[in-house]
UniProtKB/TrEMBL annotation:
Keywords: Amino-acid transport, Signal, Transport. Residues 27-369 form the Leucine-binding protein domain. This is Branched-chain amino acid ABC transporter substrate-binding protein. It comes from the Bacteria. Pfam families: Peripla_BP_6. SUPFAM superfamilies: Periplasmic binding protein-like I (SSF53822). PANTHER family: AMINO ACID BINDING PROTEIN (PTHR47151:SF2), LEU/ILE/VAL-BINDING ABC TRANSPORTER SUBUNIT (PTHR47151). The keyword Thylakoid does not apply. Residues 1-22 form the signal peptide. Belongs to the leucine-binding protein family. It comes from Ideonella azotifigens.
Amino acid sequence: MQVKLNVIVAAAAALLAGSVYAEDLVVKIGHVGPTSGGIAHLGKDNENGARMAIDELNAKGVKIGGKTAKFELLAEDDAGDPKQGTAAAQKLVDSKVNGVIGHLNSGTTIPASKVYSDAGIPQISPSATNPKYTRQGFKTAFRVVADDVHLGGTLGKYAVKELKGKTIAVIDDRTAYGQGVADEFEKGVKGAGGKIAKREFTNDKATDFTAILTSIKATKPDVVFYGGMDAVAGPMIRQMKQLGITAKFMGGDGICSGELPKLAAGAMADGQVVCAEAGGVEGSQKVGMEKFKVDFKKKYGADVQIYAPYVYDATMVMVDAMVKAGSAEPAKYLPVLAKTSGYKGVTGTIAFDEKGDIKNGALTLYTYKGEAREQIAVIH
């Protein structure tokens, strides 16, 4: 009799535990970025932004459809490689994630977006700026930063109007991001009445730029623009100094990191570099951003590189749509996500247009003095 009683008690306990578990809703959020390779510092920065959001959401006890949501972060490394990016995307789809934040690079984000679209899984990129990403007609694709048309074009005009660039050279790394932002920069230069004296290209794994820089030096450039990431830009700046090229060095968000001065190994002159980050806050919104940076450093022992706050906001916006829809099922919360308007994030107010692009995306122009990045202006 005692044995039977023990079995009954055990069964009841298991049933109770099961019912308690049934009250919880497990929500899987995928994140993909390059956490290995030359720009792993940027990928880790993004991933930590996602982890920060997930930890805060779990601490709050967020309810979706009356159930307490338990958020899980499924983090994948795409190494900045398109093939690895699509493989990571398929892995997340197979894991039945409820949504994806990522990827970091346009070159991985664009091919991965088809995988998510085919599976009907919402994707918010916190940093991919190539216009093509949201122009493929995928209803699942969103981004929380301005695209290259705005970013590259603004830098092109700035090179001519503010830096008074007469002889401007352009180099890109032939990735979707690098070539895309360089193309838009060139359009911006020409639109402002300037001319491109030389256009060269390299690749995102290159370390020796002697040949292309020697070719550019012959034009006596005032400005050299590089479309690519900081891991290549740093050594390029160093080699420019070795060759005696004193031109201003410009680039998009890919070079606009806290690591750039270290990657340039002390070769940057004060004010030599001008770059833009696809985002930015001003006025009273700065308080929230500064608090985020302090909290981030306290949690991870590292400064924000570029896009951790945008990853954080992207995660929060996705979950906000789930809460409003009363469901974490992609098909049910996707229409709500698409209608996001007026969400107050640490990066500013977030609203999506019909393509999934952020409305009224801001840009922040920066330069460097010593190893410190200094804000020049926020442009809308």
